[in-house]
Specification:
Length: about 210
C-alpha cells in the first residue's frame, strides 16, 4: 500500500499554524502578568529617587533663602576669590648686596656651622663711618658693602658676613663689617651720626641669630 504524503500536507500546515497561534496567545497572556509584577517595584524606586532629589534641592534652596511678606530673599553667598600676590621687587642695591654676601658665604661655610643657637647676650656699642673711627670716610665695610643704617653691624670674626642678628628692641641687622675691638660678644651697630652713636652708648642686649 503506497502512502500519498501530499494528502497530509494541508493538515501538517494547519497544525504548524496552530502552534504559532498558541505561542502568540501565550505571549499576550504573559505580558500583563509581567507588567503587574514589575511595574509597582519600578514606580516605588522612581518615587524614592524623586523624593530624595527634591529633598536635596529644597534643603539647598532653604539654606540660602528666606521668605518675608511673600517675597523671597536670597542670601549673599561668599565666593572665595584667588587674588594674585605680587612679590616685592628688589632694588638694584639689594640685589648687589645679596650677590656679594653669597660670595662670602661660600668662603665662610665653617663659620655658619658654629653660630650660637637660641638667645644670647651681646655687648652692643655704636659707630659711624667717620674717618676718625674707621680710618677712612667712604663708608665701605670689611665685606665690601656700603654701610646702611638699621642694617649694618660689625661682628666678631667668628661671625660670617651675611649672618642676620635680631636684637631685642632694635630690630634685624646683618653682619657686614669688622672692627679691631669687636671680639667675643661685642658688636658695633652702624649709625648715621655721632650724636646718635654717643646717645646709644654701650648696652647689654638680648640677641638671636636668624640666619
Amino acid at each position: 500500500m503506497t502512502t500519498n504524503y501530499q494528502e497530509f500536507a494541508p493538515l501538517a500546515r494547519f497544525m504548524m499554524r496552530g502552534e504559532q497561534l498558541m505561542r502568540i496567545i501565550s505571549l499576550f497572556v504573559a505580558l500583563p502578568i509581567l507588567w503587574a509584577t514589575f511595574m509597582p517595584q519600578y514606580k516605588a524606586l522612581a518615587s524614592e529617587v524623586t523624593i530624595a532629589d527634591e529633598t536635596k534641592i529644597n534643603f539647598e534652596i532653604q539654606e540660602h533663602m528666606s521668605i518675608a511678606d511673600g517675597i523671597i530673599h536670597l542670601a549673599q553667598l561668599d565666593i572665595p576669590m584667588m587674588v594674585p600676590v605680587d612679590e616685592p621687587v628688589k632694588s638694584e642695591e639689594e640685589l648687589k648686596r645679596e650677590k656679594v654676601l653669597a660670595v662670602w658665604k661660600t668662603k665662610q661655610l665653617s663659620k655658619w656651622e658654629n653660630l650660637p643657637k637660641g638667645q644670647f647676650t651681646i655687648n652692643a656699642s655704636a659707630y659711624t663711618a667717620a674717618a676718625d673711627e674707621c680710618g677712612w670716610n667712604t663708608g665701605i665695610t670689611a665685606s665690601g658693602l656700603q654701610v646702611k643704617e638699621n642694617r649694618t653691624i660689625a661682628c666678631p670674626p667668628e661671625y660670617p658676613f651675611g649672618a642676620k642678628i635680631k636684637i631685642e628692641g632694635y630690630g634685624l641687622f646683618v653682619c657686614e663689617d669688622r672692627g679691631g675691638a669687636i671680639k667675643k660678644n661685642h658688636v658695633d651697630i652702624y649709625m648715621k651720626t655721632k650724636q646718635e652713636a654717643f646717645a646709644f652708648g654701650r648696652r647689654n642686649l638680648l640677641a638671636e641669630i636668624t640666619i
